[in-house]
Amino acid sequence: MPTLITSGRHDECTPALVEPLYRGIPGSEWVHFEQSAHMAYLEEPECYLQAVGGFLDRVEAPVSDTATQL
Predict the structure, then answer these.
(1) How many Cα atoms occupy the beta-carbon half-sphere of 8 within 13 Å?
(2) CB-CB contact of 9 with 62 (8 Å)
(3) Nearest to 28, CA basis, from 63, 70, 58, 53
(4) What is the DSSP letter of 46?
(5) Going by C-beta distance under 8 Å and a sequence separation of 6 or more, which residues neighbour residue 49?
(6) Per-residue pLDDT tens for 11-56?
(7) 44 within 8 A of 36, measured Cβ to Cβ
(8) Angle at 54 between CA 51 and CA 60, to 5 degrees
(9) Which one, of 2, 4, 1, lies nearest residue 49 by Cα?
(10) What phi and psi values does residue 37 have, to the nearest 5 degrees?
(11) How far apart are CA 55 and CA 48, in angstroms?
């Protein structure tokens, strides 16, 4: 299942806590926001929307015809 994990530099959920989650979900993506605590969507809205939008574009991209024929 496509999974996006987000955290912030000033987050109480530190990289030591997030990394096992990231490594435990195959194919997951982790975005670390440098200017945020736990609410990057409020603290860095442009960066957050870009990260989430890019993630959704990647996971919702149509499957190529070659792959569907397998």
Answers:
(1) 16
(2) no
(3) 58
(4) H
(5) 41
(6) 999 999 999 999 999 999 999 999 999 999 999 999 999 999 999 9
(7) yes
(8) 135
(9) 4
(10) -100, -110
(11) 11
Element (H, E) at 4: strand 4-8
Q: What is the mean pLDDT of residues 48-66?
A: 89
Length of the chain: 70
- Torsions phi, psi for 33 (to 5 deg): -95, 120
What does residue 11 show for φ and ψ, rounded to 5 degrees? -75, 140
- What tokens appear for 19 in the block? 């990394």
Distance CA 56, CA 51 (A): 9
Evaluate if residue 69 carries a pLDDT over 60: no
